[in-house]
Amino acid sequence: MRQATLIVNPQAGRRRNLVLLIPALIQALADRGVHAEAVQTTGPGTAGIVAARAAASGSEIVFACGGDGTVHEVLQGLVGTETALGIVPIGTANALARNLGIARDPAEAVIQQANAASTRIAVGQVSFGRLSSAEAEGQQRRYFTVMAGAGPDGALVYSLLSGQKSTMGRTAYYAHAARLFLTQSFPSFRVTYRLQGSQTWREETAVSVMAARIDDLGGIFSRLTPGSSLHAETLRLFLIRPPAPVSLPSWFVFGQLGLHRANPWLKMLDVEQFGCEALKPGTAVHTQVDGEWTGLLPIAVRLIPDSLSILIAPDAGPPKRRASH
Fold it and tell me: Over the stretch 161-177, which tens digit does the pLDDT of each residue have?
């Protein structure tokens, strides 16, 4: 039988009784030739450690049972291994699961993926330091499959560090985001990047950057990252230029209308690498990776090819591919 591990976040989003469903999920997998064991997370950061141990001990699949944060943590332990990532979406947004066509019902999700084929994909890597020192020994790194950014999105997740995000409904979350963006000032910062196939580094000033790997972030943000794809060999970078009070609302409005290319404050770039740093020492520009706060600038970002196996449900088709442009 194939071996699997269910990593369960008992505090995840909309199904706080998830632990009561685990025996049924294990049985559903067993009926399809997969022997599974379940491990509950005990706090932030533990899912990645459990995932790495499961991969090292021979699990062929590790299911992240929780929201986008749980998936992100499990990802950290699986990059560079042959163990496949499966998802049981229990959170509010479930961005990656939705883009992969995974059912929202936990039982349906594991049945859908029990005998699914795995696909190797590239993942993004964020290094916390200047671009010139991105390969420094021992530098902290985080991997991502959904998005990474700096500026307002980082400030938003920072403002929710108290833990209220998991209990906040969509409407309250959107209201909180709107209030933050309308009342807080966002400093400009330096972005250096290298386009696909180029050895030349270019520089811009931005108030927000977001590198996306999926083209539907969900809800009112669903149309902000067109053309992004898990299959892409580059990062789709959305760079918003100052002034923030004009350019940030414009990104949202032009995006909802599908008029990204008419937006004079937006640059959409396919890059191989990019880095961000504050223009002035001591300026606080917040960063996020897959919706998790990760600190302040500077950061350096690139793709790591062929670094993750991910389950593709047979009836879901491949992940969305990059649209032509």
Answer: 865 665 566 777 888 88
